[in-house]
Amino acid sequence: MSNVDREAVPSRCGGRGFVVAEPVRELLSPRRVKLGESTEVRRLLPNLGRRMVGAWCFVDHYGPDDITDEPGMQVPPHPHMGLQTVSWLHDGEVLHRDSTGSLRTIGPRELGLMTSGRAISHSEESPRSHARYLHGAQLWVALPDTDRHTAPHFEHHAELPRITAPGLSATLILGALDGATSPGTTYTPIVGADLTLADSADVRLPLEPDFEYAVLSMSGEAHVDGVPVLPGSMLYLGCGRTELPLRAESNASVMLLGGEPFEEELVMWWNFVARSHEEIEEARTAWTTGTRFGEVKGYDGAPLPAPELPPVALKPRGRVR
């Protein structure tokens, strides 16, 4: 997934100085962003007041959109470095192509996981013959310094672990939860799970007290630790929790995102996660000159041009502004 803003805003994030070390209930509102030709997303991370949750550094929620007579998602080839992208759908399909030669259609509740490592480019589009509705989330995970120059690769996992309890059905996307472990490759202690709550559900989900957490609402109205969370909004929960109370008066679905607070300070600009302004500048030049990021073959259209860099040097700093 790309950040297609033509005036990309740098985000300085990472570092443990601003991690909330105790349970909190901080409701984050989205910023609406146009993605490609016909898809609008609600951007939850980076947010004005909260930059990361564990290693999760970018969260977009979109749909459900009726794309019967629309092209749906159409994101031209664009570059990534220093991160992993996570494609997660509730409805519809996304056709993924990348510069390593991967070509895969990702369906609902299947994990599309792309590790950019040192450099990759990819495109994302709704197939020409597609389902009526498109609904999902696109997320990024920052790679630690020890792994951010690894070779790029793509994983597709159609079968993922499931966790069930009265009123709860969960699909584990990444990491570990309640004794289950996802097959997706991770580089820091992290968790991502899709939680479906039945009508009148009232459950408690076990958590790791050393992790920080947030819950993204996908559909319906869920009460997360007593706070109503509506679709397209996210509740930041801080650290220090051993369990999370969840309640729904009607069917609802949320995503649990969490992980060990990310210690390193980062610079995130456009589709790059780096450690300095110089790295960002070099990556932009490489994409503009057609080097380093490879070629996405088979996409019918031109690559996405890079926006202009801001006039001041980008500097890494803490997790909030």
Automatic annotation (TrEMBL):
The record's GO molecular-function terms, alphabetically, read: metal ion binding
**Superkingdom classification of source:** Bacteria
What species was this sequence derived from? Streptomyces alboniger
Tell me the ranges covered by the Pirin C-terminal domain, including all copies: 193-292
Q: Does the keyword Transmembrane apply?
A: no
Q: What is the recorded name of this protein?
A: Pirin family protein
Q: Which InterPro entries match?
A: Pirin (IPR012093), Pirin_C_dom (IPR008778), Pirin_N_dom (IPR003829), RmlC-like_jellyroll (IPR014710), RmlC_Cupin_sf (IPR011051)
**Of which family is this protein a member?**
Belongs to the pirin family.
Work out whether the entry's keyword set contains Iron.
Answer: yes
